[in-house]
Amino acid sequence: MAETSPPAKGIVIHPRVIAVGGGVAALGLLMAGAFLWMVPTAAARETKAACRGLKGDQPINAQLCGGAPCKLPLRAPDFTATDHQGRPVKLSDFRGKVVLLNFWASWCGVCKTEKPALAAMAEEMANKDFVVLALSSDHTWPDVLAALIEGLAPAFRMPAGPLDLPKALNAYSQALPNGIPFKVLLDPPSGDGNIGAITASWGIKAVPESALIDRDGTIRAYFVNKRDWESPVAQTCLRSVLDE
Fold first, then answer.
1. How far is Cα 86 from Cα 169, in angstroms, rounded to an integer?
2. Which has more pLDDT, 5 or 170?
C-alpha cells in the first residue's frame, strides 16, 4: 500500500494572542510617536537653557506673528538681500546650516563695537554647518565697507574725499587683506528712513539685534542689543543648536 504524507500542520495562533500582540504593537507606535514629538521639545528646552545666560529669549516684535505675541521657536521669514557684487542671496539658501543673523548698520556705533567679537566668534566656530550673516541697514556699499574697516581695522587711515565703490573696495582690501569670517548683505531702507526694508519687516526699530536660526529655518534664540559673541556663554548657546 502506498504511503501517504501526513497532513501538513499549520501554526495556529489563538485570537487572544493576536489581540494582545496588536495592542503591544499599537502601544509601541504610540510611544515612538510620543518620543518623536518630545525630541524637538527637549531640544528647544536645552537651547533655551544654554542661551539663558546670553539672554537669548528676548521678545520678538509681534509683527512677525501677525500682531500676536511671538513665542520661540518660530519660523524665520525668508528674504532676499544682495552682496557687494549685486548678487541676490536668500536666507533659505543656507537651509541645512545654523545661521546667526545679525541686524546692524554703518551709522550704529554700538553695532561697530560688536563687530570684533562677532568676527572672532565666526572665526573660532568656522564650520561648514555654521554661518554668520550681517544684514546692514544702509543705502550704499561704501558706507558698509567703511564701517567694517572702522570696526575691524580702526588703525587704518581711510582715503580722503568722497568714497565711491571702487575706492571703498580698494580701502577694504588694504585694511582687511584676509577678508572677514562672516557674510555681509545690504538691506537698503525705504525712502529716507534708517532701518532697512527687510529689517523693518521683522518689526525691528533699532539695531543691533540678532537671531539664532537652526538648520530647519526656525528661530531658536533672539537677542536685542549687542552681545559678547566671543564669551564662553555665547559659544555654549551657539553650539547647543549646532550640535543637534
1. 14
2. 170
pLDDT at 144: 98
pTM of the predicted protein model: 0.81
**What is the SS3 assignment for 227?**
coil
For residue 228, CA distances in Å to 29, 112, 220, 236 come to 45, 13, 18, 12
> 44: helix, coil or strand?
helix
Cβ within 8 Å of residue 207, ≥6 positions away? 103, 104, 105, 108, 111, 137, 195, 199
Residue 222 in grid coordinates: 533672539
String of DSSP letters for 147-176: HHHHHH-TTS-PPSS---HHHHHHHHHHH-
Phi, psi (deg, nearest 5) at residue 14? -65, 140
Give the integer Cα–Cα distance in Å for 99 and 135. 12
Report d(CA 172, CA 164) in Å as an integer.
12
134 phi and psi angles, rounded to 5 deg: -110, 110
The residues facing 218 across adjacent strands are: 75
Query: Between the ranges 13-17, 58-62, 66-70, 141-145, where is the mean pLDDT highest?
Result: 141-145
Whole-number Å distance between alpha carbons of 63 and 2: 90
Domains of the chain: 41-242 (3.40.30.10)
- Phi then psi dihedrals of residue 105, to 5 deg: -160, 155
